[in-house]
Specification:
Blueprint: H1 28-31, E1 37-40, E2 43-45, E3 54-56, E4 68-72, H2 76-79, E5 90-91, E6 93-97, E7 104-107, H3 113-119, H4 123-126, E8 138-146, E9 149-159, E10 165-178, E11 183-186, E12 189-190, E13 197-201, E14 210-216, E15 238-239, E16 242-243, E17 253-257, E18 271-275, E19 279-286, E20 288-298, E21 311-312, E22 321-329, E23 333-340, E24 345-347, E25 350-351, E26 356-357, H5 373-376, E27 384-385, E28 389-390, E29 393-395, H6 409-413, E30 421-422, E31 430-433, E32 437-442, E33 446-451, H7 460-483, E34 486-493, H8 501-513, E35 527-529, H9 560-570, H10 573-580, H11 585-588, H12 594-597, H13 600-606
Parallel strand pairs: 4-10, 6-8, 12-21, 22-34, 34-35
Antiparallel strand pairs: 1-2, 1-3, 4-7, 5-20, 6-7, 8-9, 9-10, 11-13, 11-26, 13-18, 14-19, 15-16, 17-18, 19-20, 22-23, 23-24, 23-28, 25-27, 29-30, 29-33, 31-32, 32-33
Length: 607
């Protein structure tokens, strides 16, 4: 008789031997038996090859029976719909509920990291979420509740190309359930030409009860496999409240916002990660981070057929056209437009919602309820036209900010993401307001602040807020242009003629720093063309290259505030767009080619 919990059936092929690994020495030499198999994207072979197959033993695929699995609770519609995971960006294990036909429960995957790489991008076929005719293996489960507790009965049917089958049964205890919390990704695509990915996590890796620890995949790997360490464990980005050293120059990550002791009395927990490699999945644990409770894997859509899934653009050859930006930062609104070298025209943009919600729906209706924490402290899910972007910055509680380099408060607050996010949201839970800030009151996080009316402030902290606003806004702009097939190559910025002295030089430093924001791999450094503050007209590319005054828009007298009002209120966006692009005139008129690119109406407006 096999030891309790082994649960292995015989191979279907006559004369085969069961997989046995429960006997200890010296009996292991006599009674244990292992079958060496090889897997490639869920297709199982009996022979090795040079095509990237991963060797494994069937006993190495499921987590030990001592593992406690975590359940995810969603709405009643999901629990009564067998196909509810079809459009979900997170790979979970769907289980039948014992004694309740057509009822389903959802759990972490009880697969080892090695197994996750063996099945790779066809995990959805293994779990029955999607079809893949070449993958015959299946992972199924039944959820049962009795007087002793909650259990998950898992069966792995492992099919080889030669027709053999291994069946492995394991019974797991259920540790508990996660509900009402979310994990968000930004942007909604991955590409070999993009290297800044962000995660907002409401189940911090060092929380008291449940922990979610993200890990990455190698985008340069043909199959985008999990990056493993020498112990065959994923490279988790953080542990015990600290960023982990990934010991590889190709993998760079940051823990930007922390869950730490300074905010332990705040009931709302969140953390924000950045990685130069896309997030591949998340390890869940319970009680302490070493108590593994299974994994979830993020689904990326190569065919771009399911809008809820992030796009896998790793195989696309993206030839990005040049985009020449014009930016106006105003006291109330900010405006952005660009000249497209590909389309030979001036364009505005809509900054789309590029968030991916892993555990909930991001279709939040702010007409029905005020914005919540994840809508304010992360990239916004409201879409906004770039002729009317609110000049408002949502800032994190300073105690939450990660500061491993011991930066000063001013230095820390000027960083993109760390220093906050441009706030596009409507229906905010505003408690009080003054001339420079709105105070918000959230049900969970408590008090938070929005900074506004920043333009004319000379306060050193406000300089940091202005830089954080423009830097984080640039990430929105880069993502939108990237999807439209463009890459920013130059930037011109406006200022009102009444702005002089130290504050003007301050803005010059802020805009110059935006050349460091680019998330595009091997991009050329963004050329920032500032105003000629000293009245220099020598045509140097670091000046207005031809402007003969210090006023805004290359010589016109309108203030930036008037420009903002034109963008936001008049409805004559075409006129305003042309006005915004006037700082680009010296670039656009290079070699007189503007005559071949623009119609007469546009040409007259830019002159």
């Amino acid at each position: 008789m096999l030891p309790k919990g082994v649960g292995l059936s015989l191979l279907q092929k006559p004369g085969s031997t069961p997989e046995v690994n429960k006997f200890l020495a010296p009996f292991s030499l006599l009674f244990n038996h292992s079958t060496e198999l090889y897997g490639l994207e869920g297709v199982i072979f009996s022979e090795a090859s040079y095509d990237g197959r991963i060797s494994f033993k069937p006993s190495e695929l499921l987590l030990p029976e001592t593992t406690e699995i975590i359940q995810f609770r969603f709405g009643a519609d999901d629990e009564n719909n067998k196909n509810s995971l079809a459009n979900t960006p997170l790979m979970l294990l769907r289980a039948d509920v014992k004694g309740m036909p057509n009822n389903y429960a959802y759990f972490t995957l009880p697969l080892t990291p090695h197994a996750l790489n063996v099945f790779g991008n066809n995990l959805s076929a293994l779990t029955g979420i999607a079809d893949a005719s070449e993958v015959k293996s299946r992972l199924s489960a039944e959820y049962e509740v009795d007087n002793l507790g909650e259990y998950l009965n898992v069966r792995l049917r492992l099919h080889t190309q030669t027709g053999n089958e291994n069946v492995i049964d394991v019974k797991y205890k259920v540790a508990g359930e996660v509900k009402g919390r979310d994990i968000l990704l930004w942007p909604n695509f991955i590409s070999k030409k993009w290297n800044r990915y962000f995660m907002y996590n409401e189940i911090p890796h060092n929380d008291i009860k449940f922990q979610a620890s993200p890990f990455i995949g190698d985008i340069n790997d043909q199959h985008f496999r999990i990056v493993l360490n020498d112990k065959n464990e994923p490279l988790y980005l953080a542990k015990d409240g600290k960023l982990q050293d990934l010991n590889n120059p190709d993998y760079i990550s940051s823990l930007l916002v922390e869950n730490n002791q300074k905010v332990s009395d705040n009931p709302y927990k969140y953390e924000i990660y950045e990685s130069n490699q896309p997030f591949k999945g998340i390890k869940f644990s319970y009680g302490k981070s070493d108590n593994l409770c299974g994994f979830v894997i993020i689904r990326y859509d190569k065919l771009n057929k399911i809008k809820e899934l992030p796009k896998d653009m790793t195989n696309e050859m993206q030839n990005l056209a040049k985009a020449r930006l014009g930016i106006d930062f105003g006291s109330t609104n900010s405006s952005v437009a660009y000249w497209s070298d590909r389309d030979n025209e001036v364009k505005g943009m809509t900054l789309k919602n590029r968030r991916i919600s892993l555990l909930a729906s991001d279709n939040k209706n702010n007409d029905e309820r005020p914005a919540v924490e994840d809508e304010v402290f992360f990239f916004q899910n409201d879409e906004i036209k770039t002729n009317a972007i609110k000049s408002v910055l949502a800032i994190h509680d300073f105690k939450r900010l990660s500061n491993p380099s011991n930066l000063t408060q001013e230095q820390l607050l000027e960083k993109e993401i760390i220093g906050g996010f441009p706030c596009f949201e409507k229906n905010l839970p505003i408690e009080t307001s003054d001339n420079t800030k709105h105070t918000l009151k959230f049900n969970r996080a408590g008090i938070a602040e929005l900074k506004y009316n920043m333009k004319w402030s000379s306060n050193p902290l406000e300089k940091g807020h202005k830089k954080a606003y423009l830097s984080s806004l640039m990430l929105h702009i880069y993502a939108q242009l990237f999807e439209e097939g463009h890459e920013p190559t130059s930037l011109k910025w406006s200022y009102p003629s009444s702005m002089v002295g130290d504050i003007l030089n301050q803005y010059r430093g802020i805009y110059d720093s935006l050349s460091e924001i680019s998330p595009i791999v091997e991009s050329k450094r963004l050329l920032v063309y500032p105003p000629d503050i000293q009245g220099n007209t020598n045509g140097d590319e670091n000046t207005w290259a031809g402007s003969n005054t210090g006023s805004s828009w290359g010589g016109v007298s309108e203030t930036s505030e008037n420009t903002v009002n034109t963008w936001g209120d008049s409805g004559n966006n075409w006129e305003a767009l042309l006005l915004l692009l006037r700082p680009l005139r010296p670039i656009l008129l290079e070699d007189g080619e503007i005559k071949n690119l623009l119609n007469q109406r546009v040409l007259l407006k830019l002159k």
